[in-house]
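This part of the workshop introduces the protein records we will be handling. Backbone structure tokens are a discrete shorthand for how the chain folds in space. Once this layout is familiar, the rest of the handout is easier to follow. The record below serves as our worked example for the rest of this section.
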Amino acid sequence: MEFDRAALLRSFRDEAEELLSQLERLALDLDENPGERGPIEDMFRCAHTLKGGASCVGFEQVMSVAHELEALFEAVTAQGRAPDRGLIALTLEAVDVLRRGAQVPDSECELPLAEAEPLLQRIARWLESHDEAPREAVVWSAEREAATQGHSLRVDVERLDLLLNLVGEVAIAQGRLSNAIEGSGDAASQSALQAFQGLFHGLHESVMRLRLVPLRPTLERFRRAVRELSQRVGKRVELVIDGDVEVDMTLADALRDPLMHMLRNAIDHGIEAPGRRVELGKPAMGRITISARYDGNYVVVTLRDDGAGLDTGRLLEKAKQLGLPIAGADDAALQELLYAPGLSTAEQVTNISGRGIGMDVVRRGIEALRG
């Protein structure tokens, strides 16, 4: 059998992205609950599996980084060291480096050493700085690792689309067969047709569900962005994900940009600074919640924050400055101004927001999805 390196690389990259997304999520879980050792075992397994996959395709630098991550996690699982925020920061940085390393073009097939080496040196310094740290006996949980192992099968989207097209052709043939049999008066043929139609309905529904993916992993990936954006503007914000629905894979991808714009606005405009929140009697840490639920044949995704809300006076002032028509003073009319291109209530433009394009992009993106 001829060796298909291209197919092997595609498989490795798909698996690497799944492992790195899981590793990122576990690191963020640990960031929210410092000192816990439970997630470290799963993080070790992710790094170990990634190292094995990289060895199969000859990605030496990816293997090196994954190997050092194993050493980082083993210092906790086997040597009893505390999983501090330094470990979390190194893990998140490693996720970025490994993600780039796993996705390099086929012509390069390797991560440049210059990019990986500084990270490897920082990991080595973390390990050395903890050589004298108190240690506890920690038992590796084989049962826990086995419990986290699931079974899945990766299938190219093109193959799913081909299957959907074939189901459509079968539906057309079913219609023609139905027209031919229903007028024949043959009871046996009509009974067989009814049985076939029932089976086809089940097949059609099952095939359609093959394209459905849980929306929650897409939403979970925003936790890293919220963490970094809030730190950048000097705020403390937690992201809460509520609900778990399944959507078509194309919809899950298309929701990322609109939701990212809304998160940036919530962090920069909505959530107050910690000191101001304490003055208002609120917790210093702000909260953004993204919820998803079914409503009949629709999926409703809601993003809310516990910040200051709309500054209607500022909104009206900016609208008048821009010469925008104002339909009224009720909430609906004021909220409509949020989507006007170029309108922003920010005092100054930052690298997060302030140019007045975010909510306009959100509306156009959602309308393109017939939302």
Observations:
- The longest strand covers residues 286-295.
- The chain has a mean pLDDT of 81.
- The chain is about 60% helix and 10% strand.
